[in-house]
Design brief:
By secondary structure, this protein is of the alpha+beta class. The longest helix has 37 residues.
Length: 386
């Protein structure tokens, strides 16, 4: 890694997190999944070392850094085989939104806990009939005196079973008349009318996925995050970090798979030389490495733009980074499994489960096709078809 791109502090952070990840590794994550548990030990140790809140303000116990630092943490844990998906949600999306737009009371209540890992927050935007299309969100919030009443449904919400609250994206009632006014609400896990049911997933991950039902969930006025009329700005302040962190998730996973394949190709011998000496094996692995490195470059650009306050520039770069990382991750995992042949499908080598997991970086939080739509319209100025 060139010192021009990363500071000595960033390089030291990479090395330290890589060492932590190595102590846990893929076997730890696999055992957590097998036991139906959560990676509490790794989460707690990462928090204690200051890694989970590295992007949050120092005055609330965070590291005072930004997405550049937080993406390094997730990438290196992923490269060790033990990514923490809730890092995408709790400190990156929810922590960022509250730090930027929350009231002082909300910041005091949530940021210290999000920074030290003692509090976790989920994020609910996706809906059964709208996907992540914020223009079609039907979860509505209406005023009832000083309170808010929320009604609606959300799907594919990660970690609700362990989250102390969920940051829910809703729309104020008059948005149905044509004006888009998404608003963000902090919904405590034990709020009356707030129900969750686990979605049965083929995906093997410690973090469970849930469908949420909000049935006249009554919230005090102070549950609204930020300004009622600044919804889109606040929403994308959370979605850009989500894309950057999804890129980190994909790059880390791709690096892990590639490293396993390279180790195997160096030692597996069928003829006179190890199979890695054959270009049919070596070149696709080299190509996977190049594509992961290119994706990381775009992720670094996106993080830098975001941390510098350039939300528009960061939006384009974050989408591109997420797209590039998703493609690179899927290709790296596929090539790694192919390199190992039959061994790539065994539990012993732990790569087969990544075939499903790698798709997450292509699908969530937004599909590659929607990113191509974004680039077509926003970057290239082409007309919309929808």
């Amino acid at each position: 890694m060139s010192t021009v791109l990363e500071t000595e502090e960033h390089q030291a952070l990479r090395a330290a997190v890589a060492a932590l990840g190595k102590r846990y590794g893929r076997d730890y994550t696999t055992s957590v999944v097998r036991d139906g548990a959560h990676p509490r030990e790794l989460w707690a140790e990462a928090a204690k070392l200051g890694y989970l809140g590295v992007n949050l303000p120092e005055e609330y116990g965070g590291g005072g850094g930004g997405m550049a630092e937080l993406s390094i943490v997730l990438e290196e844990l992923g490269a060790a085989g033990s990514p923490l998906l809730m890092m995408v949600v709790s400190p990156a999306i929810c922590g960022t939104v509250i730090a930027r737009f929350g009231t002082e009371a909300q910041q005091r209540q949530w940021l210290p806990g999000l920074a030290d890992g003692s509090l976790t927050m989920a994020f609910g935007i996706t809906e059964p009939d709208a996907g992540s299309n914020s223009h079609r969100i039907t979860t509505t919030a209406r005023k009832d005196g000083e309170d808010w009443l929320l009604n609606g449904r959300k799907v594919f919400v990660s970690g609700v079973d362990i989250a102390d609250a969920t940051l829910v994206v809703g729309r104020t009632e008059d948005a149905r008349s044509g004006r888009l006014k998404p608003c963000l609400f902090i919904v405590p896990r034990d709020a009356p009318g707030f129900r969750r049911s686990q979605i049965d997933m083929e995906l093997q991950a410690p973090e469970k996925q849930f469908e949420l039902v909000l049935d006249d969930v009554r919230l005090a006025a102070d549950a609204l995050v930020g300004d009622e009329d600044a919804g889109l700005l606040q929403l994308f302040a959370g979605l850009n970090p989500e894309r950057i962190m999804t890129a980190a998730f994909g790059i880390g996973m791709g690096r892990y798979a590639l490293a396993r394949a390279v180790d195997y190709a160096k030692t597996r011998q069928v003829w006179k030389e190890p199979i890695g000496s054959h270009q049919a094996i070596a070149h696709p692995l080299a190509q996977a490495h190049i594509e992961l490195e290119l994706a990381r470059l775009m992720m670094q650009k996106a993080a830098r733009l975001y941390d510098d306050g350039d939300d528009i520039g960061a939006g384009e770069a974050a989408n591109m980074a997420k797209y590039a990382a998703g493609e690179a991750c899927v290709k790296a995992v596929d090539q790694a499994v192919h390199t190992l042949g039959g061994n790539g499908l065994t539990r012993e080598y732990g790569l087969a489960s990544l075939i499903t997991a790698a798709r997450v970086a292509r699908i969530a939080p937004v599909s590659r096709e929607m990113i191509l739509n974004y680039v077509s319209h926003q970057s290239l100025g082409l007309p919309k078809s929808y």
